[in-house]
Every structure is written in C-alpha cells, then in structure tokens.
C-alpha cells in the first residue's frame, strides 16, 4: 500500500509540473544512508546558492545556542535566558488546546 501511495504521489507531483527526485535503494545500510544524507546536504547547498540564499548562514541556530547557554547559567548570557522566558510567554499564549 505504501509503495502504491508513493508512486501515486510522485505521478501527481510530476503531472502538476513540479520537480521530483525519486530514489530507489537496493539496500538500506550505514553506507547507503550516509550517502543519502550527503546527497541531500549537497542538494540543499547547491539549491540555496542558485536561489541567492546562503545555505550556511544559520542565525536561528546561533541564537538557539545563546539561549541554551543562558538557560544553563553560563556567564554573559543572562539576557538570553530572560529572552527565552519572554518568548515562551508569547508561545504559551498562542497555544491551541486539543479537543
């Protein structure tokens, strides 16, 4: 069933004129999985460059590190810890409760 759904989805994507990468693996082991991860990392880098985006600029990652340092009590990151608290107040206020 999953294979049929995958093929159906792929056909619908191609029919609509959108690009598709279809990969079939003979086996799923460490080497193959590593190669697949590398492929997508490389694809992301190339696509970002082609779109004029720096795929290696990760301001969110760097800010996340600063927040973590602050929450762990690292000196010099006290304001970052405070900021996390402020953001989580906003996040909590926007939460949608499950029915």
Name its key features.
99 residues, mainly alpha, 65% helix
SSE-based structural type: mainly alpha
Euclidean distance between termini CA atoms: 31 Å
Number of helices: 4
The helix content, as a percent range, equals: 55-70%
**Low-confidence runs (pLDDT<50, min 5 residues)?**
none
- Radius of gyration, CA atoms, in whole angstroms: 21 Å
Could you report the average pLDDT, rounded to the nearest whole number?
Answer: 89
Return the string of H and E elements.
HHHH
| Morphology | elongated
User: What composes the largest sheet?
Assistant: none
Describe the structure.
It is a single chain. Helix content is 65%, strand content 0%. The longest helix has 21 residues, at 30-50. The protein has helices at residues 2-15, 30-50, 59-71, 78-93. It has 99 residues and is mainly alpha-helical. The chain is elongated, with a radius of gyration of 21 Å.
